[in-house]
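ok, trying the design again with the full structure, not the truncated one.
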């Protein structure tokens, strides 16, 4: 059976029951630590973190030495149990680590304008300019996922009691009401524009009446 190109598991999936299995993970390099020859890589994806270990005897060691923060890598290796004193109780995958057999760099990153690891207090203009990096930080990522779950739960519960959700148009004829109009050029009718509605009020009233 051939393994998926990028992963057999997510970076939040593996547990002590997986010890001894050969696995494949892909994700961002969250941080790299050098402990006297042993290299530790925290590998991150949307779901969580897994610790990767590369020792000097591993064929993956040479590549492991080159990787830096936010590089995207694929790791093949074996799941091993951490020693009792190195177990990380704060991490769902904290009882295991992956001994890297092979590492493939999928995408290298230049030096970062702001770090993703940790929660540094960076100026807002830098954070907004590099928003795609800012959104990878743990706190913001957790907030966005929590918001998605809250909205999904609201929709589910309202659907259960008989509410119906209607999607109203986002392009309409211009009808400024003292507020600024946001215009979208038409590709079909050159020189004319659509407007973004300032509120779905009229459409909702049409649905209510109908």
């Amino acid at each position: 059976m051939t393994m998926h190109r990028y992963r057999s598991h997510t970076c939040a999936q593996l547990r002590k029951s997986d010890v001894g299995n050969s696995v494949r993970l892909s994700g961002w390099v969250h941080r790299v630590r050098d402990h006297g020859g042993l290299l530790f890589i925290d590998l991150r994806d949307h779901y969580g973190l897994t610790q990767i270990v590369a020792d000097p005897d591993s064929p993956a060691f040479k590549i492991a030495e080159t990787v830096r923060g936010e590089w995207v890598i694929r790791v093949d290796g074996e799941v091993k149990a951490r020693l009792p004193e190195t177990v990380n109780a704060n991490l769902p995958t904290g009882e295991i680590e992956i001994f890297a057999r092979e590492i493939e760099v999928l995408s290298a990153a230049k030096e970062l304008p702001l770090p993703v690891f940790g929660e540094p207090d960076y100026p807002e203009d830098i954070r907004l300019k590099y928003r795609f990096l800012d959104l990878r930080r743990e706190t913001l990522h957790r907030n966005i996922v929590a918001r998605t779950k809250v909205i999904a739960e609201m929709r589910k519960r309202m659907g259960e009691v008989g509410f119906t959700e209607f999607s109203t148009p986002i392009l309409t004829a211009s009808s400024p009401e003292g507020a600024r109009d946001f215009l979208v050029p038409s590709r079909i009718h050159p020189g004319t524009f659509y407007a973004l509605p300032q509120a779905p009020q009229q459409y909702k009233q049409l649905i209510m009446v109908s």
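Keeping the full-length input from now on. The helical segments are 61-66, 124-129, 131-134, 138-160, 201-209.
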